[in-house]
Design a protein that fits this description.
221 residues; eight-stranded parallel beta sheet; globular; binds pyridoxal-5'-phosphate
């Protein structure tokens, strides 16, 4: 199967309104161009350096999502162009993104990455930290970030019941945040990014609005 055919077969299985991020980490520009030429425009990378190297040689109308941990010293490189930072994993990082977004004169869309997996190697907010963030008086002074929702990664396990319950938990937390902390236009807080090649079908059943898929499109890494 070609990249374009893989993309089309996944897209045709997505409920209406769900977006597909084609995850291109480790894949060369020529393969990304195959996806682009089949009409796809939304791509995700997990490392800033690789993302920028690819952005510089690929078409300008690609929407880039950052899906991996963002180090403080790299924030300034992506803020000027990134479409969505899916992996904001601390309040400190969110404040830094806001600061750089002010300098760049942009509003930067962000998701809060929440820790749902049982492995503790993965980055992400815990819910107590999220509640603290929203209750901090400084939070309301952040003018140039726009929180659009949450992102999470389930445990790497063959226990599908566990994967499902982690996705369900993420959805519950999304609802809790939206209800208790999002003021103003709650309609802008509407994204739940969950689901990868091996678990996106479960994620969709649990209410995912963004799936991030790499190997199913481009082959194993
Ligand atoms: C690599 C990666 C994906 C895609 O993984 P596949 O199993 O190749 O679909 C999704 N999300 C994140 C955060 C990733 O790092």
């Amino acid at each position: 199967m070609s990249v374009g055919a893989n993309l089309n077969s996944i897209k045709s299985s997505l409920p209406q309104g769900v977006r597909l991020v084609a995850v291109t980490k480790t894949k060369p520009a020529e393969i990304i161009m195959e996806a682009y030429n089949s009409g796809h425009r939304v791509f995700g990378e997990n490392r800033v350096q690789e993302l920028i190297a690819k952005k510089n040689i690929l078409p300008a109308d690609i929407e880039w999502h950052l899906i991996g941990h963002l180090q403080s010293n790299k924030v300034k490189y992506i803020v000027p162009f990134i479409s969505l930072i899916e992996s904001v994993d601390s309040y400190r990082l969110l404040k830094l993104i806001d600061k750089e977004a002010v300098k760049a004169g942009r509003i930067v869309d962000c998701l809060m990455q929440i820790h749902i997996a049982s492995e503790d190697t993965k980055y992400g907010f815990g819910m107590p930290e999220i509640r603290e963030m929203f209750e901090d008086s400084e939070f309301n002074t952040l003018t140039n970030i726009r929180l659009r929702g949450v992102m999470g990664m389930a445990s790497l396990t063959s226990d599908l019941a566990r994967v499902r319950s982690e996705f369900r938990q993420l959805r519950k937390w999304f609802e809790e945040i939206k209800e208790n902390y999002i003021v103003g236009d709650k309609g802008e807080f509407n994204e739940i990014s969950m689901g990868m090649s091996d678990d996106y079908r479960i994620a969709l059943e649990e209410g995912s609005t963004i799936v991030r898929i790499g190997s199913l499109i481009f082959g194993e890494r």
